[in-house]
Amino acid sequence: MNKEDYFIGCFSKSPYIGDDAAILNNMCISQDAFFENVHFKREWMSLYEIGRKAMIVNISDAIVMNGRPKYALLTVAIPKTYSRSELKELARGLQETAKAYGITIIGGDTIANVKLDISITILAECDRPIRRDGLKEHDLLAYTGKPGGSLRDLKRLLRGGTVSPSSRFIHPVLRETFFFKAAKFMHAAMDISDGLFHDLEKLHRANKLGFDFFQPIPKRIGCSGEEFEILFAFDPRHEKAIRNIAKMTRTPLTVFAKAIKKPYRNPCRAHHF
Fold this sequence. Notes:
Elements: H1 3-9, E1 22-24, E2 27-35, H2 47-63, E3 68-79, H3 84-100, E4 104-113, E5 117-125, E6 140-144, H4 149-158, H5 176-182, E7 186-191, H6 196-207, E8 210-213, H7 219-222, E9 230-234, H8 239-248, E10 253-260
Parallel strand pairs: 3-4
Antiparallel strand pairs: 1-2, 2-5, 3-5, 6-9, 6-10, 7-9, 8-10
Helix pairs in contact: 2-3
């Protein structure tokens, strides 16, 4: 068990922990951190792009719980060297992204720091949450998009190269239209933030089920984190309906496995701590 899983396990008695968001009084409440030199380097992204991605990665958690994001709280630790124009650019990335998803920023905290660290709490209306632990034996598993590009581009950046501003690592695009139309058919869902294989491990732990893969998935795809695509499970009877929704919303869709009673081993290295 890695240190992240061990630390989370220290709070395992809480009934709210173990999903992309906590469910409380028909609200999904989620929080994610976006820290300089952990999730990004300052030279890789503009301050607008940093603000946008910080908000997007948090909105993603709410959406895959079948939540409609409404409010956000921001905690931002900012270097004292930032100018007013830099602060304005960062704020614009946060504000414009929140507005695009109908979110009102209602408060938070700001402090001085030696680097830029952002933590966001999202409050979303969630009348019918979709949890990780709803997977059923013989369910089909699918993911949206074409994972792999985020890891590829991260490696380029770490080598000192550049990537397109439209790279999913820089500019993740969420699939909320597809999700909300297909949600009624889903038994379990989560976003692909740590990588497909890592996130399948979370489904395995939550449901005590393994996976029969229809064809091998390369590690360059399965180990690529920060894709913010959707991983979900559904009854095979609804495959045609889900494929029709994917076609209607122009969402790439791959049905890749069936849930069965067997062990599962994640082949990727841990990338937290």
